[in-house]
Design brief:
With 172 residues, the protein is mainly beta. It has a single domain (18-171), classed as Sandwich (Immunoglobulin-like). Helices cover 10% and strands 44% of the residues. It contains two helices and twelve strands, in the order H-E-E-E-E-E-E-E-E-E-H-E-E-E. Strand 1 and strand 2 form a beta hairpin.
Length: 172
């Protein structure tokens, strides 16, 4: 009987709130690579300061934003494709940078924001050449975010090109 009461209480607690996750997904594309930031919760998320850091990525990745510099052949500057996303502070990403800092004003529940940019690897030998980036090459890159100026979240890209930031609960 006691076991059943605990189970019922646990289910009640889980159903009264939603876990809020922010998922960052990388997808290689031609000529632009895409990052999609998804709010998989049932609550809106406000004031997100996010860093995507490729320093420790398996492919030693860089952002390739100009014709000259460290990138290979095709380059693409930062471009918002959906949502209230902007670059933090400087307003640009330099060719060869490994860190990209964003401000996301808000992402509604179960909605996305996204941007495109070119990402190249700097390996001497890579699976698809330096122009194309595999999910395994972005693995070990990191994402950090500060939500509403106080909740700090960290995640690492997996070998499927996804990083999941686990947030505190939010009301339904």
């Amino acid at each position: 009987m006691f076991k059943h009461l605990l189970s019922a209480l646990f289910l009640c607690i889980i159903s009264s709130s939603s876990y809020a996750n922010i998922e960052v997904q990388f997808r290689d594309g031609a000529p632009k690579d895409k990052f999609t930031i998804s709010n998989t919760s049932k609550c809106d998320v406000q004031k997100i300061a996010m860093n995507i850091d490729l320093t420790n990525s398996n492919g030693r990745l860089i952002f390739d934003t100009t014709a000259s510099g460290q990138g290979v052949e095709v380059f693409q500057p930062f471009e918002v494709t959906k949502g209230q996303v902007s670059l933090n502070k400087t307003g640009n990403v330099n060719d060869g940078d490994k860190l990209l800092s964003l401000i996301i004003t808000s992402i509604a529940a179960n909605d996305t924001a996204s941007f495109t940019i070119d990402v190249d690897d700097t390996l001497a030998k890579s699976e698809l050449g330096n122009i194309r980036v595999t999910d395994a090459e972005i693995a070990k890159g990191t994402v950090s975010a500060t939500i509403n100026n106080n909740e700090v979240l960290n995640a690492t890209f997996d070998d499927k090109g996804k990083a999941v930031l686990l947030m505190a609960n939010c009301a339904n």
